[in-house]
Amino acid sequence: MEKSKPNLKKYLFILIGTSTIGCSSSQIKDYAGETPALVMETYFNGTLDAYGIFQDRSGLVKKRFTCVIKASWKDGVGTLDEDFTYSDGTKSRRIWTIKKTTQNNYIGTASDVIGEAHGEVSGNALRWKYTLALNVDGKIYHVAFDDWMYLMNDKVMLNRSRMSKFGFHLGDVILSFQKR
Description:
Elements: H1 8-21, H2 40-43, E1 46-56, E2 61-74, E3 77-86, E4 91-100, E5 105-109, E6 113-122, E7 125-136, E8 139-151, E9 156-165, E10 168-179
């Protein structure tokens, strides 16, 4: 008796169907009515403490870190001076320069950001998209970041960053910001 062959078309249809279901994503405009309203120049002004983790795509926490951010604005330009300390004892620094381009849109640059970061604010949310040059064991990788930040109150903001390369999910960075 001959074994029946799987119906390849059927499985391909199921695979494509289930993968497109997961492709829909929220849009920044979905948060337009959420409060408190995020004003970048207000929240990112002064000193903030951040606590975060990096999870690989399986959800395993690979690294923990803290960050002290000294933020200020002058003549419509923001500076975020970030000092990171990682769980393995290493340290790094990133200095962002942020400019408001329209009422709800911003561009940002930093020495390890490839090109410009593009951000949009709506309601209590900020979405940043950029490519970061990440040093992993002495080798530089260009990794796409899709950051979503949510203002919880005048002191606390939560952040989830999805990291990918060539469209493949690498992991996530989860952060909480606490304004002093």
